[in-house]
Amino acid sequence: MEIMWHESLETGVEKIDSQHKEIFARISTLISADIENMKAEDREVALHKLLRFLGGYVIDHFKTEEEFMTKAHYPEYDEHKKEHMEFLKSYSSLVRMFEKEGATDLIVTATQNQAVDWLIKHIKGTDQKVTAFLKSKK
Ligand SMILES: [Fe+2]
Ligand SMILES: [Fe+2]
Question: 45 alpha carbon to ligand 1 midpoint, in Å?
């Protein structure tokens, strides 16, 4: 999946935009590390790093976005928040799996599908709707 940042994703809110750029940059660095083909030890470290990033920076980013949507009286706040909660749910189950079984093939693939691809899709789709709303208010 394409993970290049594109200016069409801009919301015009500096804080959200710079966080999105950071998410794209960090994920592409971590993905280009080619976790699938690493030896077991390195793979463990790389996946741990990726999960830590998702659970730290990304979750803080959701909070920023939610605060902002509340302030702007965004009409689709509930739906948007629900998607963030879905991410949290799959993220927690990935962490539990990782703690129990380590960086197995299954967890690497599940992290890619349920967290990374999901996140990119969310930024390009659901977050993009916030952009459209802001532009219409200008
Ligand atoms: Fe976002
Ligand atoms: Fe979002």
Answer: 26
